[in-house]
Specification:
The complex is a heterodimer of chains A (about 475) and B (about 280). Chain A has about 475 residues and is an alpha/beta fold. Chain A is built from 17 helices and 16 strands. The longest helix of chain A is centred in the C-terminal third of the chain and has 23 residues. Chain B is globular. The chains are: A alpha/beta (about 475), B alpha/beta (about 280).
């Protein structure tokens, strides 16, 4: 039987309907579709897909189990390497990772690895199986994990399974990091997926202390010297939002994507005044940037009731860093992509409110250091977009609190923590770091990969220390 | 959960609360702030620390009822608990022996100047407190301030107590009588801090102001609290809340504080409708 060159479509909510609700957009495969999709896998002798996975999930093996309808075995295989499969199946940029390397992708579409991962994870979750707590040795060593985001949670889960007593310190009132405050409900359901994945980690015996800002409540040194932790993992994530530095960014109506999304996702401002945190959406919204966060902000603005939402991005479609599926979904929902445009000024009215945004048209020149063609402004091509809200989504810089309060911890010129790529070790003994605080804004899966490497390295370090 | 140990109405619509938060109290320093949330549906409210007691493990907060969230907070009673209480946040005040230090507090801004005055006194400075209020009845913390300073100067807008006029008149009075002021720390409404900074610019007196702009997380993530200081964009939650008053763009700050004004009214009405706003 010839293998279909196309992936099985995943059912989605009607774009016209979903543009006005926060329910999940993609609905997931049913069993028959999942098995049929799994049948497309060629089980290559030398599977390439696995190389593309930052946490090296044994992809062909779990897909083999889906074919056999042995979903319990499939989830066990995934969980060997991935502590948050329901999250990754939804938010990983598979087209740049596993699916990019799939042999089928050379002539048609790759196997829908992400969709299959989601199917397996959701099937498992639907069974509601109890997680068994870990039995810790009386003299188990203690590890402090700073930040309950993807890097920290992965590191904590892995370490708990290795028998370490782990406490996760989270600055916000809710665990999850970007999974809670950043990625919207319509892409990653909070109660159905995020909360349950976190609960499962807590059920292993991991203690999660909310409202705890390390660097202020305890310094890293105090955690190790006074609070009895034998090692520390820093996974504090993306920090302060970047702005372009153009005139008008202080006007009322200019948000960072972090603020806009936090108000909506974490503080539930979409339900104001039932929830007390306000948000101002405006009629016409311009989101600056082309990453996943920009897509999230744009689609959130639409759902909050904006009439017209633009994505303003200085490069072309090909360079958009967002997941392909998110770009497609955003387009279907009616987001207006203004590519090869760069804002030069936010325009304000006499009362300090946004009334427009001046942009300049760009063209692509020679490749820059990132290998992408550098966008160059076209002289005299300025034009004004009439908007009353501007959401800046051009990345974040590191949060400075831990770097400033931890002597002996080396940082880069930008303020990111310096950590070994292989074992996440920092310049300070017993302190490891990974995720966005090291790399700058990246993806959930890369942060998880770092958390995983760090857990292995911390295990080795603590075994050595115990001797 | 963080228990309210004591609640006192200092003047109409202005409340003091001692909150049980031993971990925060252990580390709190003058000039820092906390973020609290009353319940699951609550806003994250940033408040500058008005006092801390490391032994008793408590933090004093002073707030004025302005919008829905402060109205709801004011409806809480001693013995009840707040859901979240995070801190200490922000950079502490720079405390060292400078000579003569003046703290200027306007309205409820008096409260956060108190721990600064005390720390400055403990560091060996001569400390003068200027306390401004619209009228005598709403002046707060006068006795407490007297206990930790060398002198307290009160101004009221209507002349019902102390000097008639604004805090800037009191600053001028001190200068006129020959006080050599090494630093002023001014905390209060933005317009007051701007007036003090404008007055001291020409006098050449180093002036620190403590900003309380709109913020969500307060830990260096949302960027809502950005403020122009000189030619730099600073974030009040991690770079501040104290900045050089001569460099702060007060106009921008005042404008940004109007961002949710109309929604505040809507939120307040909602709180009243569901019966949360009544003081019990």
């Amino acid at each position: 039987m010839a293998v279909s060159t196309k992936k099985h479509e995943m059912p989605v909510q009607d774009p016209k309907v979903r543009a006005h609700n926060f329910d999940e957009v993609a609905l997931g495969y049913d069993e028959e579709t999942a098995v049929a999709e799994a049948e497309r896998c060629l089980h290559c002798k030398v599977p390439q897909c696995r190389k593309g996975c930052p946490v090296s999930v044994n992809i062909p093996e779990f897909i083999g189990k889906v074919k056999e309808r042995d979903f319990d075995a499939a989830i066990s295989i995934i969980k060997e390497n991935n502590g948050l499969p329901a999250v990754c199946g939804r938010v990983c940029p598979q087209e740049n990772q596993c699916e990019k390397h799939c042999v089928l992708g050379k002539k048609g579409e790759s196997v829908a690895i992400g969709r299959l991962e989601r199917f397996v994870a959701d099937t498992y979750m639907a069974k509601n199986e109890e997680v068994k707590p870990i039995e810790y040795a009386a003299d188990a060593q203690k590890v402090a994990v700073i930040g309950a985001g993807p890097a920290g949670l992965t590191c904590a889960g892995d370490l708990a399974k290795k028998g370490y007593r782990v406490t996760v310190f989270e600055a916000l009132h809710k665990a999850g990091g970007v999974l809670s405050y950043g990625i919207p409900e319509f892409r990653l359901p909070k109660d159905k997926v995020v909360k349950r994945e976190i609960d499962n980690i807590a059920k292993l015996g991991v203690k999660i202390e909310l409202d705890s800002v390390v660097g202020r409540l305890y310094t890293v040194d105090e955690l190790m010297e006074e609070e009895g932790f034998d090692a520390v993992f820093l996974g504090t994530g993306a920090g302060l939002p970047r702005f372009q530095g153009i005139p008008g960014e202080s006007l009322n109506g200019v948000y960072s994507a972090n603020e806009f999304l936090t108000r909506c996702n974490l503080m539930k401002a979409y339900d104001f005044p039932n929830y007390a945190t306000p948000i101002r959406v405006g009629k016409n919204v311009a989101v600056i940037g082309g990453g996943n966060v920009a897509m999230d902000a744009a689609r959130t603005a639409l759902r909050l009731g904006a009439d017209h939402v633009y994505i303003v991005y200085r490069r072309s479609e090909e360079e958009l860093p967002a997941r392909k599926e998110e770009v497609e979904h955003a387009k279907e929902e009616g987001i207006d992509f203004r590519l090869l445009n760069n804002p030069v000024e936010v325009l304000g009215d006499e009362n300090g409110w946004v009334k427009g945004m001046r942009c300049i048209k760009m063209e692509l020149g020679e490749p820059d250091e990132s290998g992408r063609r550098r966008p160059v402004p076209i002289k005299g091509s300025e034009f004004d977009l009439e908007v009353d809200t501007v959401i800046v989504s051009i990345g974040t810089g590191p949060n400075p609190i831990i770097a400033h309060t931890t002597p002996g911890l080396d940082t880069t010129k930008r303020g990111n923590i310096v950590a070994d790529e292989e074992n996440c070790a920092t310049s300070k003994e017993g302190v490891f770091a990974g995720g966005d605080i090291v790399t700058g804004s990246a993806t959930v899966i890369l942060a998880m990969g770092a958390g995983r490497k760090a857990a292995t390295a911390i295990d080795e370090y603590l075994k050595g220390k115990k001797k | 959960m963080f228990k309210i140990l004591r609640k006192e109405e200092l003047s109409p619509g202005v409340y003091a609360m001692d909150i049980e938060a031993p971990r925060v109290a252990k580390k709190a320093q003058a000039g820092q702030f906390i973020v609290l949330r009353v319940d699951e549906k609550g806003e994250r409210i940033p408040l500058t620390i008005a006092d801390f007691d490391r032994e008793a493990g408590k933090i004093l907060i002073v707030f004025q009822v302005i919008g829905a969230s402060t109205m709801q907070l004011a409806a809480m009673e001693a013995g009840e608990s707040l859901l979240d209480f995070v801190g200490p946040l922000g950079q502490p005040s720079e405390i060292e022996k400078m000579g003569t230090v003046v703290v200027v507090g306007g309205g409820i801004g008096v409260a956060p100047t108190y721990p600064i005055a005390r720390a400055m006194k403990e560091a060996g400075n001569k400390v003068i407190a200027i306390m401004g209020a619209k009228t005598k009845d709403i002046l707060i913390m006068e006795e407490e301030m007297k206990a930790v300073t060398d002198e307290v100067v009160v101004t009221t807008d209507d002349g019902s107590y102390g000097i008639k006029g604004f805090v800037t008149n009191a600053v001028q009075m001190l200068v006129d009588r020959g006080e050599k002021i090494d630093q002023i720390t001014a905390i209060g409404p933005v317009i007051m801090m701007k007036s003090v900074a404008d007055a001291t610019r020409d006098l050449g007196i180093r002036t620190i102001v403590s900003l309380n702009p709109i913020m969500v997380d307060g830990t260096g993530m949302c960027g809502g609290c950005r403020v122009q200081v000189g030619d730099e964009t600073k974030f009040a939650c991690v770079d501040g809340p104290e900045f050089d008053g001569h460099l702060v763009d007060f106009k921008g700050l005042m404008s940004r504080q109007r961002m949710y004004r109309d929604m505040e009214a809507e939120g307040k009405e909602h709180i009243c409708n569901i019966g949360l706003g009544r003081a019990k």
